[in-house]
Specification:
Chains A, B: It holds the Pfam family FTCD_C. 2 copies of one chain form a homodimer. Chain A is mainly alpha-helical and about 210 residues long. Chain A has helices at about 10-20, 25-45, 60-95, 100-140, 150-170, 180-210. The mean pLDDT of chain A is about 95.
Chain lengths: ~210, ~210
């Protein structure tokens, strides 16, 4: 069902995103932005393979292409999961709440939906952090002719992380399970720090090799 | 000819971007990322129209939708211009350079191509700064239910600006016209400062209204 996003033309996707229809929203768009960031890092890894000047990095570049291709596929699945999590949440709001039993069932479904609508964007964030890490790995050795695109990938993926995290921030206050909340908050802080550091490392190498 | 990007499915565009083919590269991808950012701001403006709670902002929201729609169309054209500027640059490298006359013609064409390959991403950057400005305008009054997506738009567009500016930074050192170089550098600094300020303003309002 990832055709809801990736099977559309870019024109169609943008037309839907800018319209008043609630999907695609910030979570999905962040995931698509992340795939674009990953694609730039992957391109530079691809441009490093089969080149005499980079023969000593051949295996490393191939590993990075494989890893980034897997990341892109994972993001496509997460984009779809994010839309489904949104649909699930909306469905819960339409559940009946006349009897006490209905109220209880609705409240429980609401908690489950809120956790799911937190976990999916958090997984998108984790994947974004992996992209920035791949960019930091590639920046010191990737094909110099296209090295600025590693910078594009690092910046775009780090922003996708910060954007997707807004979906986490929206849903977290409605979750009652405080162990879950504490875990998410710790992971949130860790991801911001890790991605920021890797972005700065990547950009430092990119600038050095551009100049 | 914007079908080279926007007429493709998102899947096809990503497959091309991650491949070793030099286009689409960082410039085009930054422009697409910017359209995604603009689409999020536009969506929230659209969600503010026709709602009782926001009736006093109706005209302002409509103006913003019109402005952002125009920005998105402009970015589509700039994406195409960026690909053409790259093609033009590559064509100059293939020009003959046997005679003095050929060398002179080639050097002149190279300077023109370098200026064009600087102006187009700079125009992309200017357009990104406009998106962030629209986000800062919308953040204080846009539909609260989707206000986090204004934050997504502001962050994504500011990063698209920084990403597209790497294309400026690559081409600027090869330009001999020092007046041109000085103007671009001044504009570069101005855009970074303006977009950063507007992003922070937008995010401050978004966080306030999310909590």
């Amino acid at each position: 069902m990832s055709d809801r996003v990736y099977g559309k033309t870019v024109n169609e996707f943008i037309a839907e995103a800018m319209s008043s229809s609630p999907t695609p929203g910030g979570g999905n768009v962040s995931a698509v932005v992340a795939t674009l960031g990953a694609s730039m890092v992957c391109m530079v890894a691809n441009l490093t393979i089969g080149k005499k000047a980079y023969v000593e990095f051949e295996d490393q570049a191939k590993e990075q292409v494989a890893k980034l291709s897997e990341i892109i596929e994972r993001l496509k699945k997460l984009t779809n999961d994010d839309m489904e999590a949104f649909d699930q949440y909306m469905a819960v709001f339409r559940m009946p709440k006349s009897t006490d039993e209905e109220k209880k069932a609705r409240a429980e479904a609401m908690q489950a939906a809120a956790k799911n609508a937190t976990n999916v964007p958090l997984d998108i964030c984790k994947t974004c952090a992996e992209i920035v890490k791949e960019a930091a790995k590639l920046a010191p050795y990737g094909n110099k002719m296209a090295i600025s695109d590693v910078g594009v990938g690092a910046m775009v993926a780090e922003t996708a992380l910060r954007s997707a995290m807004l979906s986490v921030d929206i849903n977290l206050p409605s979750i009652k399970d405080q162990d879950f909340v504490a875990q998410v908050k710790a992971e949130r802080a860790r991801l911001f720090v890790e991605a920021e550091e890797n972005k700065l490392l990547a950009l430092a190498d990119v600038k050095k090799r551009m100049g």
